[in-house]
Amino acid sequence: MSERFIKKEKNKHMKHLLQKWSAVALSAFLCLSGAHSQMTFVKEGKAVSRIVIADKDSVNRRAADLLQDFVQRISGSALPIVENAKVKKGDIVIGQGSTEGLTEDGFRLATREGVLWISSGGDKGAIYGVVTLLDDYLGVEYYTAHTYTLEKKSTLEIPDLNRAENPSFRYRQTQSYAIQEDPIYKMWFRLEEPREVFADNLWVHTFDKILPSSEFGEAHPEYYSYINGERRPGAASQWCLTNPEVFEIVAHRVDSIFQANPDKKMISISQNDGNFTNCTCPACQALDEQEGGTPSGSLIHFLNKLAARFPDKEFSTLAYLFTMHPPKHVKPLPNVNIMLCDIDCRREVPLTDNVSGQDFMRAMEGWSKISDNIFVWDYGINFDCYLSPFPNFPILQKNMQLFKDHHVTMHFSQIAGSKCGTFTEMRAYIVSKLMWNTQLDVDSLMKQFMQGYYGAAAPYLYQYEKLLEGALLGSGQDLWIFDSPVSHKRGMLNAHCLKRYNELFDLAEKAVADDPDLLDRVRIERLTLQYSELETARAEGGHDVNEIKEKLALFRERAAYYKLPTLNERMNSPLDYCDLYEKRFLPKAEKNYAKNAKITWIEAPSDKYLSEAAKTLTDELYGGTSFVESWIGWEGKNGSFVLDLGQEVDIRVIESDFLHQLGQWVFLPKKVSYSVSSDNQSYQPFGTTDIAEDQSVEVKFFQARSEKQQPVKGRYVKVEIEGVNTCPSWHCGVGHKAWFFMDEILVN
């Protein structure tokens, strides 16, 4: 546990910064508190108040326990908790008082005749009222799991209060790792989890959970999607939504689930993950065409039938990828919740300001015209690379305000699922605060967090973040959730920017050198910069090898020391990355005859890669875990080409390198064959590698290597690659074209 006490005599500089950065907030507080009359909880170390639970339930009890706990941490004195007692002057009453104007999770703090009343609009309102009391009036500030600041006081007083708050969204969810580590964190940041709301924790991608293809697929393929000319049952397939048998089975199972979970009123009936996998049988296609050509048409018709059969329940469904846009005619019933996802949007500017965001806005505007029950799933981090800088903070408030203005009542911000990502803790802090109140200022929240979490290093890290934001906008580049640092090597991560960022981190480390906790936090954030340097260096080439080795060794050391869990959502190990870096990216000792060799295509890569393909395969620069750089791809077909080495040489080894990244529909090929010729007419086989199917989600690299004991003379090397070509039934792209990606060929 990290508990830092702010003491005037030890932290004058920090206090000055806090006062400077929080001037507006302080002014507002003084206006709010207004009167000079006060209510005292603890006086000179002695409790003078009681906590009275007026309405006994688990939420009110947790609220009382939380207040008692922190009052004791601050003052050393525990306020007694009593239930159903006669209220007297000096009491703090939880569970009674005015609820006028309060919505679910809303609260009121009101002092009257020497009594503080904490009233709730329902659900966890009492807890959130206590959190506000502790946060805004008793000087506690929470940052992340088990990490907060407070000032020890022997006397605790608050001004007269009459303050009511309702949340901007009735449901607020992040992916923050801190939720799992610290139950107080979740309460403090007013967050919820799907298991609390959705029956049997069925909250997203539920089709195969409710109607498993393993149970019905073989006997009833007609229950599943018709894709590219045939029924394709499988774990990633969708339902045939016009099949009446499907509806009846689903309705029966839904009824059973609710009976087994009588305390729940909501369930998700939503498509499996994947794109373009909707059913295109004549009946489904006709209904979708009737609804404007969107697969959301058949989906909403199906959901409305369920919602009508169970009018006292709420049914959530995805508007995601192929179902993002609303139907033309049918309207969701009031108890159908639309979970709208902005997965394809870029994040460098608000949703209204780029093409991808504008397409999403059209979808959201369309849904908001036909529904008041919308759930937005927002993506706020780079999922292919948690350590890639992601300076999207300036757009957070604007986007959330857009959501609220378009009837969004539930919000999930998918961020901070792993430790040691780019500003992981601060991102979760800011997003959680905004989900409660979209009117809060992001910059003020950032300064507040940095001062409390990074101490004297805060001004330097603040400048670093602002430079990132400016450099991103100045570069004109997109910010994508499947980016790579390499994508920004000429923008916000160019050499001049990296140099300045490192200078700021040097100053930050120096500022907190005497505080091990704060120094650790600065160094954890610096991992982002260190990783970016390694990635841009390997993609550029020409860097001092010894310098790169030193940087790699330091990254390895710190990643191990701070237990950096993963590089991405595919669970790639940072230490494995370091091993691979040495193997793949550092210069090879042996001569590569294929370097800058001429390539003649037989079966060429896809058009979008063709112009750079020959160079990419022969420049000795290997690609990383993201397919967006240093890779060339073939979609839905085999690949083959001839490599002209320029002269006849002795060939012992031929090797080519492939990417495995199933989340992007990138499969390893089935087979890679090499043959050698001296005249480009007559070829003799050199070697073949058969590659087994791999269903693991981790991003991997595979070397198809053939080696001869005795060298073979040749000038021309033919490479033939047999791809998977069509995504199999277990994959989220079932029935559609599969990719394979190749980044380098080696001949020596």
What does this 3D model show about the protein?
This protein is an alpha/beta fold. Among the domains are: 2-166, Chitobiase, domain 2, CATH 3.30.379.10; 598-747, Sandwich (Jelly Rolls), CATH 2.60.120.260. Strands 21, 22, 23, 24, 25, 26 and 27 form a 7-stranded antiparallel β-sheet that branches. Helix 14 (393-405) packs parallel to helix 15.
Task: Give the integer mean of the pLDDT values.
Answer: 94
Q: Number of DSSP helices?
A: 22
Poorly predicted runs are 1-35
Form type: globular
- N-to-C CA distance: 56 Å
Tell me the β content. Answer: 15-25%
Secondary-structure blueprint:
Layout: E1 2-5, H1 12-21, H2 23-33, E2 38-43, E3 46-47, E4 51-53, H3 58-75, E5 81-83, E6 92-94, E7 107-112, E8 115-120, H4 125-137, E9 141-144, E10 147-150, E11 156-159, E12 162-165, E13 171-174, H5 178-181, H6 183-188, H7 194-197, H8 207-210, H9 213-216, E14 226-227, E15 230-231, H10 244-260, E16 266-268, H11 282-290, H12 296-309, E17 314-319, E18 336-341, H13 355-370, E19 374-379, H14 393-405, E20 408-414, H15 424-436, H16 442-454, H17 458-475, H18 495-511, H19 516-540, H20 545-561, H21 574-585, E21 598-603, H22 607-618, E22 632-635, E23 639-660, E24 671-677, E25 684-690, E26 700-722, E27 739-747
Parallel strand pairs: 1-10, 4-5, 4-6, 6-8, 13-20, 16-17, 17-18, 18-19, 19-20
Antiparallel strand pairs: 2-3, 2-11, 7-8, 7-12, 9-10, 14-15, 21-23, 22-27, 23-26, 23-27, 24-25, 24-26
Helix pairs in contact: 1-16, 3-4, 14-15, 15-16, 16-17, 17-18, 18-19, 19-20, 20-21
